[in-house]
Amino acid sequence: MAEERSGARALLEVLQQEGVELVFGYPGGAVLPLYDELGRSSIRHVLVRQEQAAVHAASGYARVSGKTGVCFATSGPGATNLVTGIATAYMDSVPVVAFTGQVPTTMVGSDAFQETDITGITLPITKHNYLVNDVKDLPRIAKEAFYIASTGRPGPVLVDIPRDVALTPCQEAVPQEVELRGYKPTYQGHPGQIRALAQLLAEAKRPLIFVGGGVVASGAEELLRQLAEKIQIPVATSLTGLGAFPEDHPLSLGLIGLHGKPYANFAVKECDLLLGLGVRFDERVTGALQQFAPQAKIAHLDIDPAEIGKNVRVDLPLVGDLNCIIKELLPLLKPYDAAPWLARIKALRSSYPLIASPGGELQTPWVIERLGEMTRGRAIITTDVGQHQMFAALFYGYTEPRTFISSCGLGTMGYGLPAAIGAALARPDKQVWLVTGEGSLQMHMAELATAREQGLAIKILLFNNNCLGMVRQLQHDYYQGRYTAVKFSGNPDFVRLAECYGAAALRISKPEEVVPALAEAMQNDRLTLIECLVSEEEMVNTMAPPGEVIR
Fold first, then answer.
1. What is the rounded CA–CA span in Å between residue 132 and residue 466?
2. What is the per-residue pLDDT across 487-531, written as a single tens digit (0 to 9) for each?
3. Do the domain assignments include residue 541?
4. What whole-number distance in Å separates Cα of residue 261 and Cα of residue 265?
5. In a domain? residue 330
6. DSSP 3-state percent helix, strand, coil across the chain (nearest 5)
7. Nearest-CA neighbor of 257 among 70, 408, 109?
8. How many structural domains comprise the chain?
9. Is there a domain that residue 177 lies in?
10. Domain range enclosing 118
11. What is the rounded distance in angstroms from the CA atom of residue 176 to the CA atom of residue 59?
12. Domain harbouring 418, CATH code
């Protein structure tokens, strides 16, 4: 007699239909029915060392591959350990579907062992979430979860599955199509608004394009290049927009905002038309809103109507998919006299250069610049959060999309290593470098075991200043140098620690050691850590207190 199809098996059918190849997770009692079926399937499971790392790895996988990342966790602490990772994916609009086990439906609400209201907890940080109370709904809900996560503005979706639901026989077929009342993302831009935008561009004398993660999510990088080149508009980026426009292009300005390139920030101040493509205009970009792009009309293009006008005044709103909109816009464009504006941009670059100097001591920007040169800006760079993140954003020189992977919106320390694992599994043909600090690395250091277990030759640049560098810098700038709780005195020997995990490891402290160390790491086929000893006095430039003018 054939084995009856359970809810858990129906779920695995959905995963296979959606083309899922990898699941990141950590098992436990309530989620074992899913794991039992997963073990019988062709889908590969990556066992992380803590559930938060499962979401970060799924996020790294999604951001590099363009597919939806998937993770599993059990009920209670397993589910709550996902929360920071889910919030990280939500803030950066990353398509992730998290499946959690739950206590049986008869025990929900009884404070049973390892019971947590994870749908209630994650309601504000998911695009949508579900508690599956009836096995008949499971195939439909799982299918909807992938659809919601990956369409419109991407984001995380959580599906909470009680143990008895996963074990109950399920007769319902997996739906082939998803139709959701009330959820209809707008893809085509309004023709009248597209014509109005073309007119604004024709009238502008100093236009500037500001690119965010929405360009990458929509796969509009090539169309963006055509747009910029057709009428010679300079292009600046947000953190999530890095790589959407090649930084070796003559029209590229790179990062703007709180830690941005000075000449790029001055260009924003002087432009007369700012074209925001898939951006949030968050406070780390704008600073004081009343003095952001003060001479400019602002056109804001985004697939999420809630973002338009949320933070900055908008003269021309345009809702839709950037691929669709730019295709319609390109034939309408007429060249403007770009020479005076481009000459001014050139003068700003000359007056406010961003230079990495080797100096007498080892300096983080100089190391990252050498890495960019040696990889030609084509490696995948994942980062943690802190000074090293900003240095990586400013000095690497990204030339391809989906190569800068970082927690940009939430600013989650510990993101970098698990994200590098997901990235390396998504693109085994690409070299993956993690740029991190000793504070961030220690938040998910155990994932070195996951990287080794998966046979990943991730390269780790660890910048060690024995302190929380960005927090120390804030205390230096705004608290009169009263340093509190930022000094590490109990750090391990990171080289020996990495070796314990089976990694190759070396330590450098002088500029002349940089290129040989990078070359050695690039040539081997092993998980490799390079510890760079840098000064705690190192500072990221271009800072301003929250809400003040970015200079």
1. 47
2. 999 999 999 999 999 999 999 999 999 999 999 999 999 999 999
3. no
4. 6
5. yes
6. 40, 15, 40
7. 408
8. 3
9. no
10. 7-167
11. 26
12. 3.40.50.970
